[in-house]
Amino acid sequence: MYSYEIENDRALITFEGDLDNAQIRQAYEEVTSDPSFQPGSQVLVDDLESSYNPSMVEAQKLVAIFASFSDRIAQFAVVVRKEVHFGLGRMVEVYCESQGVNLRIFRDLEEARSWLDSTRD
After folding, report:
1. DSSP state, residue 115
2. If 54 and its partner were Cys, which of 2, 18, 58, 64 is the partner (CB 3.0–4.6 Å)?
3. pTM of the prediction?
4. Phi and psi for 91 in degrees, rounded to 5?
5. Is 9 exposed, middle or buried (0-12, 13-18, 19+ CB in 10 A)?
6. Pairing between β-strand 10-17 and β-strand 2-7 as defined by DSSP bridges
7. Domain chopping of the chain, boundaries
């Protein structure tokens, strides 16, 4: 399950409960298709209440999902709670970097917002 809101040049996507990669892709499709979303905007992902535990294969597929939206989304900041999510997220972050995707993993929403603020032109 997910919800989102868009304010200026930033979208906040909140994921909760069980998810899969198809739902994650759907969330990004919906956000980037919203008339109030401007190409080149930032996305802050609140994954604090998600119970999704991707396998290594699913984590690699997440990289492809992020890469497929990188022409519309300038930066991704993903906030996670669980240690396993942070570890997998760091791996995804490294793979994203090799694909030219500007994504960072955080444990704190304010830290993620600060990073996004620092990357604005």
Report:
1. H
2. 58
3. 0.94
4. -65, -45
5. middle
6. antiparallel
7. 2-119
Three-state SS string across 38-105, please?
CCCEEEEEEEEEECCCCCHHHHHHHHHHHHHHCCCEEEEEEECCCHHHHHHHHHHHHHHHHCCCCEEE
Residues written for the chain = 121
Q: What are phi and psi of 35, to 5 degrees?
A: -60, -25
Taking only Cα atoms into account, the Rg of the chain, rounded to an integer number of angstroms, comes to: 13
Rounded mean pLDDT of 9-22?
Answer: 96
List pLDDT tens digits, range 35-80: 999 999 999 999 999 999 889 999 999 999 999 999 999 999 999 9
| CATH homologous superfamily, domain 2-119 | STAS domain (3.30.750.24)
pLDDT of amino acid 120: 81
Instruction: Tell me the pLDDT tens digit for each residue of 77-104.
Output: 999 999 989 999 999 999 999 999 999 9
Q: What is the pLDDT of residue 121?
A: 61
The tokens 């993903």 sit on which residue?
Answer: 78
Q: Calculate the alpha carbon distances from 49 to 19, 64, 96 in Å.
A: 11, 23, 23
